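User: We ran a pulldown and think these components assemble together. Before we commit to crystallization trials, I'd like a predicted model of the whole complex to look at. Sequences follow.
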Amino acid sequence: MKILSRASLLIACLLAGIIALGPILWAASTSLKPTNRIFAVPPEILPQNPTLEHYAKLLAEGVHWAFLNSSAYAVVAVLVALILGATAGYALMRYPVAGKPAVLLVFMGTMAVPGFAVLLPTQMLATSIGLHDTWSILPILYAGHILPFAVWVSRSHFATVPRELEQAAEMDGYSRAEAVWKIVIPGAKPALLAAATFGFLHCWNDYVTGSTMVDSPELRTLQVALIFFQGFHGRDWGSLMAGVIIATIPPVVVFLLFRKFLIGGFADGSVKG
Amino acid sequence: MTQTRSNTAQSVRFQNVGKSYGDGWAVSGINISIEPGQFVTLLGPSGCGKSTTLSMIAGLETPTEGRIMIGDRDVTTMKPADRDIAMVFQSYALYPHMTLYENIAFPLRARRRRTPEAEVDRKVRAAVKMLGLEAMLDRFPRQISGGQRQRVALGRAMVRTPTVYLLDEPLSNLDQQLRVQMRSELKDIHQRLGATMLYVTHDQSEAMTLSDLVVVMSSGRIEQVGSPRELYNNPANLFVARFLGEPGMNILDGEALDGRLRGPGFDIPLPVVAGKAGNRISVGIRPEDLQYAPTAAAVIRGTVRTVEYLGSRSLVRVEVGERLIAAFLPPSVDLPAGAAIGLSFADPDKARFFATDGGASLHFHQNFAG
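Assistant: Here's a predicted model for the assembly, 643 residues in total across the polymer chains.
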């Protein structure tokens, strides 16, 4: 019975793996096929004459700029959201803020509002204050998206760092700010890294906000830039798949780097938070 | 006590200090004067305000009234970092993400001290040598035992030779055996450093064994300040009399008449000092100052309730009137529960007399203004 249940577990895992990885592997394979072999019948599972022509084409089209845009937007947004979120989270945890429960509820509430509901008002607002189609609009909006989560996570994890540790640091000759920086932040590091990873993935995967808030080609995100391979070039599947593979790399790298914190961080939050 | 006084050790003075949190006073009327190099304990039941008092010296709480002086400096509103005080917390408060070395070096690396790394290393190694922690400097706090954590916390305090050490129930998280061991280590360290140490505990045996001076507190007020012997032999009031000693002083309430104090089950001569106190007087006597007496010579008569045989002596609980009192008697006195027993004072001078109303000692007029 034990062997049987283990075997069925293995098969289930294998199936799940195939379902999850299959499309990505297929995209990788397609991105390496010459254009005329993409729809070959019977399909080639492994490309017989692999080529990098689609990747070269992406470069020629300047998609690497979109890649850099997406990276820069995400990194700036995550840094801003973490700095503001950690500061607010600390204040909400440690100081007698007036109406604290209401403030927290508002932060929670904004996480529950669907992005589409506020998309149009946001776009009109961005236009009216002259930020629409500028380099700063996406980092600002992304930071806004992540901020409530960052506040919530940092607040609940700062609360797990005993007050006495801060007091000890103050007695040891450090200012309150130094105590927070040297003691409280490192204590909540796993949770903050988990929040950073989550935030990065959110920014990186965004399509809707990116396509609504900027029009200029040089400001586009990678996700938006890739969509143009569908129309302008009559569904250039090879280039599109090459773009998909490139777009997959940063989230995978980020996830592998912070995997430990991502899983641990959220699990911690669920028990201690 | 022979001790070398550290150059940095300073005096601490509380001048009429009080702390209110809005709904009444947590502590009030605190006047304590601590000399450089003294080991002073704040002793009292939980909630008596001793930790609040310690927090006010540390700067973690600001007094609502009064002044706190360290040496010549008025530190009443000074930030903790500016006071040059070290504190050992009940939870040890070791920084979990730092190794033991980094924990101990942490105060030296504060920007305000700008200690060169070579100096940091020398001081950390000197401290760990004194505490016997050399072998484990690369470990993290979670990897060491409670007693070792306690030593690291002490090391972190010692390494920068502060003007005053504050210790907040530092032994309470240790098991009994380790607590006794750390207690004597602490005493040894105090003597070697010659530092001013202020210690908070609810454990009277720690207070009695370690201190030059004990401050007994209850309900946010100081009940008595004195050496362990003074407190034990000459308590200022009924609270201190009952609180110190295991078990505490036996108290019997009676009425004074014609030079004698009488109550249910006892009849004793009153000393001259009791003359001015009206007629409601309580007598206090330590369990070890009572002796077994044939019924005719007894000044206290009662009924045996329990007998706890302790080897070298027995702790006998005796019901006198409606009170239960304790007496340490020779183990040869073997009486069954319910037996009638007579007791007398081994040394009548050791009996203490208190005004039943208010509880003040009739022997004792302490001036708290220090």
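The domain at 244-355 of chain B is CATH 2.40.50.140 (OB fold (Dihydrolipoamide Acetyltransferase, E2P)). That may be worth checking against your pulldown data before setting up trials.

User: Thanks, that helps.
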